[in-house]
UniProtKB/TrEMBL annotation:
InterPro entries: AB_hydrolase_fold (IPR029058), Peptidase_S28 (IPR008758), Ser_carbopepase_S28_SKS (IPR042269). This is Thymus-specific serine protease-like. It holds the Pfam family Peptidase_S28. One of its GO terms (biological process) is proteolysis. The keyword Transport does not apply. One of its GO terms (molecular function) is dipeptidyl-peptidase activity. SUPFAM superfamilies: alpha/beta-Hydrolases. Belongs to the peptidase S28 family. Keywords: Glycoprotein, Hydrolase, Protease, Signal.
Amino acid sequence: MASPLPLRPFSPSLPRLSVVLLLALCAPAWCRFKGFGRLHALGQQQLREAPEELWFPQKLDHFNGADDRLWKQRYFVNEAFYRLGGPVFLMIGGEGPANPAWMQQGAWLTYAQKLGALCLMLEHRFYGKSHPTADLSTDSLRFLSSRQALADLAHFRTVMAESRGLTNRKWVAFGGSYPGSLAAWFRLKYPHLVHASVATSAPIHATVNFPEYLEVVRRSLASENTECPTLVKEASDAVAKKLQDPKTYDNITKDFNLCSKLQVQTEMDSAYFLETLAGNFMDVVQYNEDNREFEGVVGTNITIKVLCGVMGDRSLGDPYARYAAVARLMMDTFSMKCLDASFSNYVRDMTNTSWDGTAAGGGRQWIYQTCSEFGFYQSTDSPNQPFTGFPLQYQVKQCASFYNISAEQVAEAVAQTNEYYGSYDIRSSRIVFPNGSIDPWHALGITQDISPDLPAVFIKGTAHCANMYPARSEDLPQLSLARDHVFVLLQQWLKQ
């Protein structure tokens, strides 16, 4: 579920992407590439009884009637709560493998049990096991877009309704992060097919440069300890200064336990290293205290409080030494023997077009979507944030290197996305937009009511997609109230 985005969680086994993002629901996500939601590669939890993988014959190109090619799209079904005449809940997959754990847990299943809903989850094209093409070449990726994904949902919904006798049932779309955006846009573009949508942590506005992400990271760190972002800035600045002197590279390699001696031959090399270190804080802030353990996610015990505790520990040395201690803590948490901070290795992985490649888990695909549709580049261009060294230019250059998409084309694609979906001026009905104040993605979302039929639920003190996760006793009262409020809205809307 929880991208999406620029859109994502932390997966030490996958290369870092240069854009953050978002998740199949914030949930079925996924791969951790810097992308929409800083993506996370979530582990697959041992399920009580794994739901059966089902396959839907899907069209390759919905916008070319002369192209009749088909491929198999993965989906899951949970009929446990369905009562005759009940609604149909459709969980939308995102920028990573659809995680079947969501067919057994999550707030949406609590709603389904109370409302007698049939539950379906459709994996997003080009992610997980849903492979529309033979490879991930740029020519193949032209079939990867939010518009094709929405058309997948529309066709799936139409055929499933006809085959299962659900044509007259009310359908409700759910999604978190990038899939949250899709949930809102599904209702916007196909109102005759979906009755209502829950668009959690959904970035609704596309933007090439997204420096506000790191501004929210600063505020979220400061909410724990006002000195914390200042110490992080001192540390990040110290690393950047050391990178200017090759004589320090041996020490940096040792301090951060790099897999190979640090090599900085271009600004891209230094930017990648600085972004990798900043990513430790970005990921933890985005998913701070979210109840993600049921997905098989590692590291949920590392919170803003923990990171700021390390940064404030004078016994570890100066802020630079504490910054290195955070990096080692993250490596230990994810059982990493060393940190691969090589930009050349990253480029190698990102330009591998095979489905067997390291970045095929979602990284190459998601970054393509940011270049061709969304932007979402979390740069250090704002002075009101604690990091340094990875400006917008560093992010956009990767579009040209990986997909031959120029900076001008990225800007035009982002403008077209906002023109097509309406950005913040979305005009529809029966869509609720939950967001958390800690989550950096709320800066691109709907945090105030647009109308009575387009309400926002802004949850203070919570992070990315928090309301989608299973309830627990330690949840903040406002988080519990938010889940209840969404349920009341669904009750009301299903009566309409």
